[in-house]
Amino acid sequence: MIKVKDLIYSYVKDDGEYEEVLKNVNIEIEKGDFVAVLGHNGSGKSTFAKHLNAILLPLGGKVYVGGIDTSDDEKLWDIRRSVGMVFQNPDNQIVASIVEEDVAFAPENLSIPRDEIRKRVDDALDAVGMSEYKNHSPHMLSGGQKQRVAIAGIIAMKPDIIVMDEPTAMLDPIGRREVMQTIDELNSRYGITIVLITHNMDEAVKARRVMVIDSGRLVIDGTPKEVFKNVDLLRSIGLDVPQVTLLAYELKKQGFNIKDDVLTVDECTEEIYRLCQ
After folding, report:
1. What pTM does this model have?
2. With 80 as the cut, is the pLDDT of residue 146 above it?
């Protein structure tokens, strides 16, 4: 679905010098996958995300979406229809004064027939659990609800891929949980390929695959269990690990025979119970 080959990108600094942000990144993402991309601030993860729907174009290497080269100007429209983007602040993506009108905005700009728009809006709001709010003002909703409306607006375009750049960063715990439940539902029930840019370890655990970017390079790529067992490496590049993983790691350092790929409270409880037998 996505193929990134030797991707290089640089920004121009205030002094006119170039700062290389992405350095020969090679990644492939399959259809229907749920990938979390981790990295500390300035690691290059958001710059990577913006390459997936041609907001940014490579200065070196290639990015292919569904086999289409993102640098092909004639195919830009196809790429943008295939890859939807959700950003940190939902207020920046909400353009209408009524929820259902906001969700209809993108399909209307795609010149989709009115009957089809009505169906897409209803289906999209149902998919994110916001149907009962369709006649509400978006600005009267909670942060989590606003973000779900923003996601519904993307779903109404029927993209194959949704890239989410830290969509829960500005939300409280309840809003964060609502959005993560929505993301999981979109992937598991509707088969939409999800690329989640985040620095929240508990969110990354829910993905099927985790990639870690540091200083513009891909340093780890694997399942959550494979990635988070590398506690020392992750901490050396400024990242945390889930608290239960850290607890298991510390117990193992003290000589206890405990698994080093514990990710959830239930797994940790089972391991500690086993040690107490």
Report:
1. 0.89
2. yes
